[in-house]
Write a structure and sequence with these properties.
The complex is a heterodimer of chains A (about 270) and B (about 280). Chain A is mostly helical and about 270 residues long. Helices cover about 75% and strands about 0% of the residues of chain A. Chain A is built from twelve helices and no strands. In chain A, helix 9 packs antiparallel against helix 12. Chain B has one domain: Orthogonal Bundle (MetI-like fold), CATH 1.10.3720. Chain B has a two-stranded antiparallel sheet with strand order 1-2. In chain B, strand 1 and strand 2 form a beta hairpin. The chains are: A mainly alpha (about 270), B mainly alpha (about 280). The interface between A and B is large, with 86 and 89 residues.
Chain lengths: ~270, ~280
Amino acid sequence: MKKRRKVREFKPYSMFYACLVYLFLYLPIFVVIAFSFNTSKINITFEGFTFEWYWKMFENRQLMQSFGNTVIVAAVSTVFSVIIGTLCALGLYKFEFKLKNLISSSLYIPIVIPELVFAIALLIFFTSIHVSMSMVTLIIAHVTFSMPFVVITVRARLAGFDKSIEEAARDLGANEFRTFMRVTLPMISPGVISGGMLALTMSLDDVVVSFFTAGPESTTLPLKILGMVRKGVSPDVNALSTLMIFGTIVILLTSTLIQGRLEKRM
Amino acid sequence: MIKSFKKRLTALVTVGPTVLWLGAFLMIPLIYVIGISFLTKNAYGGVDFAPTISNYISLFQSEYAKVFLDSLWLSLETTVICLLVGYPFAYIIANAPKRWKPFLVLLLMLPFWTNSLIRTYGWNTLLRTEGIINHFLQNIGLIREPLEMLYTDGAVLLGMVYALLPFTVLPLHTSIEKLDKSLLEAASDLGASRKHVFMRVVLPLTMPGIFAGSIQTFIPSLGFFFISDMMGGAKTMYIGNLIKNQFLSARNWPLGAVLSIVLIVITLILMKLYTRVGSLEDMA
């Protein structure tokens, strides 16, 4: 007989390898964070520790504007994606109809085609119908690429859903609306939250699509940085990026916690 | 089929918005791309309604063929490196002690949550001729002259691998985690060596993950123009940058549309190959 494995532990060399890969993933993030506290104006050597850039960045009007745009676009497009996407997932789950398969498979198109193709398709489309690029086109673009992820996540949640619970609620006298609010919605809420978080991250992370669908007034923070990189980026951008990194992490960790709570309650 | 009117209405209200949205902002724009690829560009950077196939013929010019080959090669290199680095990494995470696992997965997701451009910019800072790595190497006396690291093809490859590694690792991790451990034990009980178990059992069973990971690395890498913009010199032109230029500086929209259609065709071929081994659901 082979001896039974007890508790699995790390082997030293796998631990070392994993650490190396994690180091590779985090190195550039550490650099951005470290240089946001640097007294020197150029990102070469670390000269001294300062919080200066964290208040100086508020004086950089363009930078603040691009950051504001990033936040607005992410928030609005996430709300839209979640509403439209959840409705769609519910409809696809509840009803049988013609074209259902076609609709569910076309949801994968925005996921698999290269972002660049989708971005220039929207650029050609908006220009052809004489719509100039603005915050609105940017939000439309973001909803289009993130909404399918919401549909798929919520559908996955619905797949494990026991239909008899809804029936029980109806038998006990709840009307359709009440059944939805009290039974269906709480059941799918972890899926809705994780779909929404996916949409939010994708919006915050996007460069390619925004590059083509943002107008001169609606530049996002990543686009602003892209424009600055060749000439050199000022440390207030590092400071703002650092805030953005921690902001996203805090939001997503909180939502993961909430999701865990909801899941436990089920 | 749906019988009652009320049900029909609910179906329409729930699924309708998505269908309309994807129709208006995905399908119709894609049709516009196809349409514009058959038109002629005019001197003002716009298009004239004179149908032509000359845009497609210009694809066969050797300069474009070179761009395509360079880009496909870069994407292939990126995918292979991501798989080679990512597979052992995903394997280690999937087999990590239970109390560590959620933390390790979270640690993998965190960089994902921060903007890829900000992270690429971090590499730019590290690799510059007057950047951190050169400064460090000179200070400890390892090199005299700074190394040319940024704005090279190697830097572009590094940026691509960096940006796409999580896309490779996540599907790999999922499929390694699903692996039935008793099969591995059965194989080794029956006398297979560790190498044999890996080649004959682990590798074939995790093939769907390998394919999903490769597709999710290869396809986006074709369009990541901002990485070659930030990390690469002007020496090599990649398809993403070529397409971008047709819409910004060169203002040859029909050619840009044709190039995008080539990207779509490449994607479709890869997806067709992929659906033979895996399902679409594994992609999301």
